[in-house]
Amino acid sequence: MSRRRKLVYISSVAVPHQVVFANALQNHFDATFWFYESPDRTRGSWWRVDLGQHCKVLDRVLFREAGPFEARYLALGLDAELDRADPDIVMLGGFSIPSNYLAYRWARRRGKKTVVFCEHSRNARGVLRKRSLAWRLLHWLYRDVDLVMVSAEDAVLQYRDEFGFGERVVAGRYAADIDAYFDHPLRSQKTAYTYLFANRMTEIYNPIAAIEIFASVRESHPGSRLVMNAMGELAGKCRARISELGISDDVEFLSEIKAWADLHRVYARCDILLLPASFSNGNYTILEAAASGMGLVISDRVLGIGKMIEDGKNGFNCEPTHEKFVSRIERYIAEPELFKSHSGANRELAIHFSATGTAKFFSDTLGKCLPI
Fold first, then answer.
1. pLDDT tens per residue, range 177-188
2. Residue 271 in this model has a pLDDT that exceeds 70
3. Is 208 exposed, middle or buried (0-12, 13-18, 19+ CB in 10 A)?
4. Among 64, 33, 151, 139, which residue's Cα sits nearest to residue 95?
5. Contact criterion met (CB below 8 Å) for 22 and 7
């Protein structure tokens, strides 16, 4: 039996998906995940999970915030950590983190394989970046990287052609912690349904639109309920709009979740996911709802996973306008058999994005692209 290659994956935040993925990768690699910080600052303490023996948060990390969910990290003593681990493959979550570049340089000096895992690169307005001076510099700094793995098929062109990494770019994917969701019962006809807005109340996810869409549905179908994520900078505006529309008694905020393991139970009691986003690189909430068997009404501005939802085939995917979202919701109400047909297709799709399915995908991809 050949030796499993040692892999160190350095990522920003110790989110549960990555911890579950690290455990699943043990079937293919001697894998260790290192994180720059715990999820408390950006996601909340309920995202914290037992890191187990294959994951750790690095000590002595300096950082500055670069956005609501982004930071620039500098881990002191990283070279010494890598010397002790002596991995065959160093995988890095993103190009623009100073410590990731230091880890890349360590790997180059020692003849190790390097992989950078990244999403679309966009500016603050959500516009795809071109090959600017900054990206020319990053390309030069990482000119000898062995592989660039992007989070979805539709990001390949940007890194391959626009940023100039060429044939070293491959499509990858994130792993989702969704095993428990597959045990949820199929949704069936009801006199009124429960709708879920699972994303943060932030501008790109368009929570005000979700509230107004729900209000229209509730007017036609009394008894309807909306369950909403309680976090985000638009929380005050959302609560005010709910009050203006007179629907406070029909909206529940998810402020009582105490542990990550409780999250799947929220999906189990909801029927239809609403995501009228003006932009998103991709979304775990879609996978979670798909694995749970929920109906899906999502914006056509959602990339990655969003592009796997075909309008009318395994959910509804349309422009994020009030009228189009309401019309798609009414389809589920008028044709409840769609829950069964959509969930059958979506559960088959989602299983490949589970931690186990993604671990095998990584093993196959790295084995092909980075042969021993």
1. 999 999 999 999
2. yes
3. middle
4. 139
5. no
